[in-house]
Write a structure and sequence with these properties.
The protein is an alpha/beta fold. 38% of the residues lie in helices and 19% in strands. Strands 1-4-3-2-5-6 form a 6-stranded parallel sheet, sandwiched between helices. Strands 7-8-9 form a 3-stranded antiparallel sheet, covered by helices on one side. It starts with a strand and ends in a 5-residue tail after the last strand. 38% of the residues are buried. The protein binds pantoate. Pantoate (PAF) binds next to strand 2 and helix 7.
Length: 284
């Protein structure tokens, strides 16, 4: 059986109020649909922590940088609801655009610091769009916990900062990146890869892992990062947007491994932009 779909804020609020009267704690798993095993892992983690789990599905126009990318984003709502049913997720909240951005909507949530650089440098306005919609989803669902994947590591930082700064009473739970057997990070965008591109794609995490090992062994960061960037292109990627060493706790740029750190990268394979990251010292 599919998980029931709710489209209006009124129905969402009434259902959550009923759950609260029964004493249930509520988790939210925000998504843009096209659910894959990574999302399902977040749902399982959420079901392990709360009595009720809401998965949200909203392809948020404000976080896309091109109309073509927005139009091409996979939309598979019925299949998503079917995948969630057997897991036991309690609601798929798939609001119409007017429930999120009603006529006259004029507010934007902008998080400085952690949203700058990395993806923020290449996707102007993207994290404002993410912070705005996630703030709305937190306030609409009034969930106690929210689950996010570490694959979007900068997004995780932006969401944490936003919730803390706005005093939204929600615990943000980070879950490790889900990967294919060959290491490729699961992403809704992977379906766009041709067979040849799919064969190249896992090179990104392999190269990050090799660079992470060099850094952990004490090699100078600059050389390891430059060589890793060149290796990504040599492996068949068309270009590298960034490949950087950042502090684990606040994403500060690092020149050397003097505190817990993470390598983060974005690279293009044809029309598809892939991102990935690895904690230094953690096996992929
Ligand atoms: O990670 C995503 O799928 C989206 O950025 C999110 C968090 C659902 C906001 O639209």
């Amino acid at each position: 059986m599919s998980t029931p779909v709710v489209r209006t804020l009124a129905e969402l609020r009434a259902t959550v109020a009923g759950w609260r009267r029964e004493g249930a704690r509520v988790a939210v798993v925000p998504t843009m649909g096209a659910l894959h095993e990574g999302h399902l892992g977040l749902v399982r983690a959420a079901l392990g922590r709360t009595e009720k789990v809401i998965v949200t599905l909203f392809v948020n126009p404000r976080q896309f940088n091109s109309a073509a990318d927005l139009a091409a984003y996979p939309r598979t709502e019925a299949e998503d609801a079917r995948k969630l049913g057997p897991l036991g997720a309690h609601m798929l909240y798939a609001p119409d655009a007017a429930e999120i951005y009603p006529p006259g909507f004029a507010t934007s949530v902008s998080v400085s610091g952690v949203s700058e650089g990395l993806c923020g440098a290449f996707r102007p306005g993207h994290f404002d769009g993410v912070a705005t919609v996630v703030a709305k989803l937190f306030l609409q669902t009034r969930a106690d916990l929210a689950f996010f994947g570490e694959k979007d590591f900068q997004q995780l930082h932006v969401v944490r900062r936003m919730a803390r700064d706005l005093d939204i009473p929600i615990e943000i739970v980070a879950c490790p990146t889900a990967r294919e057997a060959d290491g490729l990070a699961l992403s809704s965008r992977n379906v766009r890869l041709s067979a040849a591109q799919r064969a190249v794609a896992p090179a990104l995490v392999r190269i990050l892992a090799a660079a992470a090992r060099r850094l952990a062994a004490g090699e100078p960061a600059r050389a390891a990062l430059d060589e890793a960037k060149a290796a990504v292109v040599a492996a068949g990627f068309d270009s590298v947007e960034y490949l950087e060493l950042r502090a684990e706790d606040d994403l500060a740029p690092l020149e050397s491994l003097d505190r817990p750190a993470r390598l983060l990268a974005a690279a293009w394979l044809g029309e598809t932009r892939l991102i990935d990251n690895l904690e230094i010292g953690a096996a992929p």
